[in-house]
Specification:
The structure holds two protein chains of two kinds.
Chain A lengths: L2 E7 L8 H13 L4 E7 L17 H17 L4 E3 L1 E3 L5 H13 L6 E3 L11 H10 L3 E3 L15 H10 L5 E3 L2 H12 L5 E4 L9 H9 L4 E2 L9 H9 L5 H15 L6
Parallel strand pairs in A: 1-2, 2-3, 4-5, 5-6, 6-7, 7-8, 8-9
Chain B lengths: L6 E7 L12 H10 L4 E6 L1 H4 L4 H14 L5 E4 L10 H12 L5 E4 L1 H4 L6 H12 L3 E5 L19 H10 L5 E4 L3 H4 L8 E4 L8 H8 L5 E2 L10 H6 L7 H16 L3
Parallel strand pairs in B: 1-2, 2-3, 4-5, 5-6, 6-7, 7-8
Helix pairs in contact in B: 3-4
Classes of the chains: A alpha/beta, B alpha/beta.
Amino acid sequence: MIIDVHVHTRSPGFQYDPAEISESIRLARRSGIDRVVQLHNLAGYGVDAEGHSSLNPSPADVVRSNDLAMRIVAKHGDFYSGFCYLNPAHDPSFLAGEIQRCVADGNLRGIKLWISVHATDSRLDPIMRRAEELDIPVLHHAWYKMTEYAFNESTAVEIADLARRHPNTSIIMAHLGGVRWRGVLDIKPYPNVVVDTSGAQPVAGLVEYAVAELGADRVLFGSDWPIRDYATQKARITGACISERDKARLLGENAARVLRLAAR
Amino acid sequence: MMETSLRDASAFFGAWAFAGLPAPSLSELVGQYRAAGVDGAALSPVEAVLQPEPMAGNLQMLRALISAGGKDFAVRAVPIINPSLPSWDDDVTTCLSESGPLVRAFKVVPNYHNFALDHRASDALAEACTDRRLGLCVQMRMEDERSHHPLMKVSPVESAAVVALARRHPRLSILVCAPYMAELRAYRDCPNVQAELSMVESGFLLQDALRHISADRLLLGTHAPIHMIAPSVAKLQSDELDDETLMKLSGGNFNRFFGSR
């Protein structure tokens, strides 16, 4: 089974768009992908009077994004898993309630943290502890950028700090293509962190380096659709100079383990 | 996907200083192409991007390609010319005399060589290419700007500058190398501008790209060996294409731009 752990939707306003979802499924299956993880809706919607934007969403927008993810999973459970998107800057009681609603009582199976606050922020700690209790992974955005840094974007060394603080919580660091060689070295000492292969261009040698340094059990296929293309991103792994056995790990076995798919 | 010839319109020979890999030899590079099903490529010397003058890299590459022969792999040499150097016209002549039919186009890297496409030297090179019925490749970027070395941040070439060059030289055939998807739309009404796919991507890749630029002007490109080859090849398989469009993108447009041998 080939599993893509990093997928979004792009229809504006957190709307469920059946045509977009069916097209996403068609393109993924055409590329041989059997299951994807819906993270959150990327579509920006400006800045409201209180300063909320897609980079720093309001509680109402978090609820809408998670409603969309749960609706997609409910309608297409044979293809989609979903993660609960949170903004750690929100009130802790809201965050706990949203995890309860969407994960403990709902159909989402992980938590997605993006760029609302840095991974070093202590406001992440209750979220990470609850993820440990629920035995679910937390996927956290990361990138090293020389330009276009957005809001409170985390680097890989900040993910390493998060992993050190929460050694029993499973963390998926997003964007190997963004954190690159330095990012691999940052998370190497923390076995509770895996990395997804998404992000930027398919730079030669990077997947091979990650497998060599982290081991083939700690690298997962992620596409970042619809920013990126399913077939193109999958070929980062199928075209890499690693063994067929390791390709199978990266393309699905590792994700099945991290997502606890067999156990549910 | 139908059986078709796959040809890479934009790749390099040599070692990129900011990559994590040593330079593949020509035979190693051809082996990587064959493994990905690609049977031809247009190569430029990557060292010529950063060295103080491009001819050392050009000549090293041309001699390697000539000595390799390349009977069953369709190589085109695309030497890099810096038209801001006083020797650029001699460099063009030397490359053509050294390699003959291997060269059907030249490449410029304006933002690494610190000249503008509206500089009179750019126009002179454009005229020289037009007069010789050669193409001109414009390298928009070498890397994702977000991942540049902190001491080597280089802006991409602006699409508007390419459009203006194309309009000043309507008989010149231009290939835009390493554009992003959003930049393709700038060339919609420039019939003498082609674009290659190495850094073009979206979730609806071919649908989006073909909305911006016609199938007659879109070419497979990989940016190898800086980038992997397989992901770019996979772009042609990412969605349904009719046979005619697939033939154009995979190799037909390459043969038209670089000449069929």
